Amino acid sequence: MRVPSILRGGGFVAVLLLLPLLGLQHWFLNLLVFVLMYATMSSAWNLVGGFAGYPSLGHAAFFGIGAYSLALMFKDPVLANGYEPFFVLPVVGLIGALIGWPIALISMRTRADVFAIVTITFLFVVQTLAFNLHDLTGGAQGAALPVPPFPAASFELPFYYVLVLLLCLAMGLTFATMRSKLGLSLVSIRADEDKARGIGVRTTGVKVLAFSVSVGITAMVGGVWAYYEGFIYPQFAVDPLVTIAMVLMTFLGGRGTLWGPVLGAVILEAGQQYLTYQLGAVQLYLIVYALIFLMIILLLPRGILPTIEDRLRQRRRRQRADAATADAALDLTAGSDPVTTDHVDALGGGTT
Amino acid sequence: MHALIQGVILGILTGGVYALMASGQTLIFGIMKVVNLAQGAMVIMASYLAYQLFTSFGLDPFLAIPVTTVIMFGLGVGVELLFLRPLRREDKSELSLLVTFAVALLIEGFLSVSWGTTYRSINTGYANSSWTVAGYQITVVRFWAFALSLVALGLLFWLLNRTRFGRAVRATVQNPESARLLGVEAQRVSALGFGLGAATAAAAGSVYGLLYPFYSGSHYDLISRLLSIVVLGGLGSVGGAVIAAVIVSTSSAIVAATISPAWSEMTFFVILILVLLIRPQGLFGSVSRGAI
Description:
The structure holds two protein chains of two kinds.
Chain A: H1 5-18, H2 26-52, H3 59-73, H4 84-87, H5 89-107, H6 112-132, H7 134-137, E1 143-144, H8 157-178, H9 181-198, H10 203-229, E2 231-232, H11 234-237, H12 240-253, H13 260-279, H14 282-299, H15 304-334, H16 341-348
Antiparallel strand pairs in A: 1-2
Helix pairs in contact in A: 2-8, 2-10, 2-12, 2-13, 3-5, 3-6, 3-10, 5-10, 8-10, 9-10, 12-13, 13-14, 15-16
Chain B: H1 2-32, H2 39-57, H3 61-84, H4 92-115, E1 130-133, E2 136-139, H5 140-162, H6 164-174, H7 176-181, H8 186-211, H9 219-233, H10 238-258, H11 264-278
Antiparallel strand pairs in B: 1-2
Helix pairs in contact in B: 1-5, 1-6, 1-8, 1-9, 1-10, 2-3, 2-4, 2-8, 2-9, 3-8, 5-6, 5-8, 6-8, 9-10, 9-11, 10-11
């Protein structure tokens, strides 16, 4: 019944790699590019927000930092084959991680709500910086990136495959974290940080490391996004809604799970694109989005995957109980005692 | 020097209005341990209400305050009952952040649909008049906004310190468990407390519309300032929020006057970082397990 994780992962990657070969239309590939972006970022957010229990609301700042880093590196649009921006993505990630390190050191002195507040304030500051540092970012006029010289027929594909790679990186890191002492340390921080420190978990180092890795990946996605869009503005590059999307997708799918953030990204990003398309005007779309948002949190506070897992576990337990009751009933009939349903209920209570 | 003192005057006057908004937010946190990310949206919503009352009925925004506070009080109670009460206790603090953000989006969407996304401002007859005292300009609107904030804050302090409800609120802030044991109805205090927080947003919002032009997305600017203020003052401390509001608003006005208005936003964050480095619980906050 249980598929080994290596098969599941391999199958997932194979499907992702083969999907574009179906000759998909541009709008669908475009949708897939955005789904992959958000799946990667939600997986990255999950490392901090899901495992360590530090609900960062500032991740979009690093998305913007990545976007502007790439824009700065390619101010002169001389591209030989168009793949150069992809090759510098590790550098972009490193920049994000290096900026994230001191930010984490300071903000992670606080916990839970206050941490969320400090990180969201950081987000607004980075947005202000993006508006004000005209020389670096072009301010409100925006910054241009070189035009990718890819043929129109397969324009999305390079971005698609790079994002598949980034998603594999994020999910691979998540998988490795879950199997390692690091993951255990993070979960212990979420459960009770003081106790974790008491029994010798190096809490500060672990959580700051998780934050840096997480925002590094986010910055790389920001870089890909900037190159894909071709022109970036402060209000879209550093957008609180991007953070909220990452958080919401992780919550919808299931915090602290490997597949939850990806599942959440697929459902929400597809839904969001559909809503924007259907309701057109941004305003109405905001209301519907907020209502869906509220419904998810109120009806599925733990996320889809943990809820399903719980149901399955309960059913398995019930089946085991049923089997035990049946056995007991057989024993009783063998002893030629009249068996009523009352007896069976008393023995295992299997029918409810 | 003249610009500096002018900046200080402006900062203190504006600080009063921020103090009013922030006191509601910190009160909500104190009672329910909920960071209300919709506080800014509620302020802007009240600005729109005041705007509508002024353009339709010619009602002065200051006189509209009783109307807007009652409406927003009801809205606050509704939000608490509908969206915050159903949350389970163990993950309430995390989820409530998301819920209040969703409420902020909901309000933003509603405002955009009703009034569009262009900037509005409330232009009363006295909008541009000002007094000159010893060479310094004091705009009439700002002065009255400051006076009103003082009155509203005074009312709030009276409510908290002199009434039975206030005593229940303060008991809940200090220790929710013991308050419950002593017969405080926690749920009622939560609902009324959230309503009260929304009402302060309404009072401040009616005035905010007089001071600055606003649109449905303005709440993002507001909320980042408010959050800096409440963290600086110490979450849950109303007095701390008032002092922090004045400090932050004055220093950002000084930066605007001496360096550049574009950088005044940064002041909030720089102060916040400095305080967190030295005193993570804020100026007047107490260390409570789990929060800091």
